[in-house]
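Progress narrative, work stream C.
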Amino acid sequence: RPGRLLLLAAAAAATATVCFVPNPKATREVSDHATGFNPTVAASAALPVLTMLAEDAEAKYGDSRRWSAVLVPLTTLVLPAVTFGSFVLYSFQEDAFWRLVPGTKRGLEAEAAWREHPIFANSKDPMEGLVNPDDFEKGLEEAWEAAKPAGSTVTVQDKLKELSTQNNPHFQTWNKQLSA
C-alpha cells in the first residue's frame, strides 16, 4: 500500500538524522536548544485543541441584517464625511499642496534646506553632473556648426550665456504673484 510505504519512508528519514554522530560543536548547540522553552513548538501543540473549540462556519439569517445595519451607514456616511471634512480643512491651510504649487512658503523653506546640503548645493546648475563640461561644450559647438542654418549668427557660447540666466518671464511673474 502507498500509505504504509510513505510512513516507512518518513520513519527512515527521521531515524537517518539520529544515526550519524555529530561533531562536538553541534552537540553543544543541540543541547542548548533542548533545554530551553520553544514557543513555536508549544503553539503548534495547542492548535489542534483550538480548532476543536471553533464553531462550524455557517450563514445565519440574522447575521447579515445585523452587520448591514452597522457597516452600511459607517461606510456610506461616517467614513466619507470624516475623509472629505479632513480634506477641506487641509485645503484651506496656507501651505496646502506645497509640493504641487511652486513658491509656497514651506516649499521655499524645503528648497533652501536642500541647497544647504553640499551634495545638492549646485543642483540647479545644468552642467553639475557632467564629468567633463568642456568636452560637452566642444561637442555642442561642433554639432551646432554642422546643423545651423546658413547665415545664422547665433553661437553656442552666446546661447549658453543667455540660458544661464534662466530668463523666463512667465515663471518670474508667477513666482512674484505667489510670494506677494
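Work stream C, second folded protein:
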Amino acid sequence: MSSRSHIKIAPNAVVCQQAELKGEIYIGANTVVHPRAIIMAKAGPIYIGENNIIEEQAYIDNRFSSDDEKRKKDKDKPEPIPMHIGNYNVFEVGCHIESKQIGDSNTIEAKAVVGKDTKITNNCIIGAHCKLSANETIPENTIIFGDECHQKPHNELPIKQDDQLGFLIKILPNYHNLKKSSKKKGSKDP
C-alpha cells in the first residue's frame, strides 16, 4: 500500500478536519468522525458503513501483523487486508480497534480494545476498558463486561443512534472545519 492517502467521504457524512485519516478509507453516509479521532489504513483499505459515530481519540487501525512486517522488510509484499465496519456502530472515546470485521449496531465503550484476531458480529456491547485479543468471533447480542471480560447474552433490540447522529450532524459543522465529501449529493458512481 502506498503512503499516500485516498479518502472517500460520502455525502452527508461529517468528518472533522482535526481527525487524522491515513491510507485508503471509505466513510459511509451520515457517519460522524469527531476531532482527534484516528483512522489508519496501513495493511489495506478500511470500509466504514453508514450512521456510525467515531468519537474523540478513538483509534481504528488496520495494520500488518509482525509476520507481515517481516515479509515487508524482505521485499515480499503482503496482500492488502481490508477492514470492514458495518452500520450504526458507536466507537467511544479512547477505544482502540484492530478487528478486521465489525458488524452492525455495536457499541465499543471508552478505552476498550478489540484486537485484530477478534471479530464482532451484530448488536454487541464491549464494555469500558475491556481488552479482547483472542482469535474468536463474538456472538450476536453479547455484552462483554468487567475486568475479566465476562460475556453474557442480552435480548435488547439494537439501539439506533438517530437522535445523537442528527444532533452531531447539525452541531459539529458550527464549531469545526470539515473534510469535504468526495462527490456531490445525488451523483452516481460511474
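The mean pLDDT is 88. No further action is required on this item.
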